[in-house]
Specification:
Number of helices: 0
Structural class: mainly beta
Strand content: over 45%
Shape: flat
Distance between the termini: 19 Å
Strand order of the largest sheet: 1-2-5
Number of strands: 6
Largest sheet: 3 strands, antiparallel
Helix content: under 10%
Radius of gyration: 12 Å
Length: about 70
């Protein structure tokens, strides 16, 4: 899992996944269990790569995580 920023300063989360498996990218402004929101549900491309650009990032700090499954 890696985090970078694009030219417009939006966070970009990238990771490699297994073919045919569904992944959920989640974001939270706290690390409390109730604070996580799914921002993308996806499967990897042919190379196994998944990339999510947060077009509506949090105003302050944000945390990202990836979960396997629906």
């Amino acid at each position: 899992l890696s985090l970078s920023f694009n030219a417009t300063k939006q966070p970009v989360v990238s990771f490699t996944g297994a073919s045919g498996i569904q992944y959920r990218v989640q974001r939270s402004t706290t690390l409390l269990p109730a604070g996580w929101t799914t921002v993308q549900t996806t499967t990897p491309n042919a190379n196994g790569t998944i990339q999510y650009t947060d077009s509506t990032p949090a105003a302050d700090n944000a945390y990202y995580r990836v979960l396997v499954g629906p």
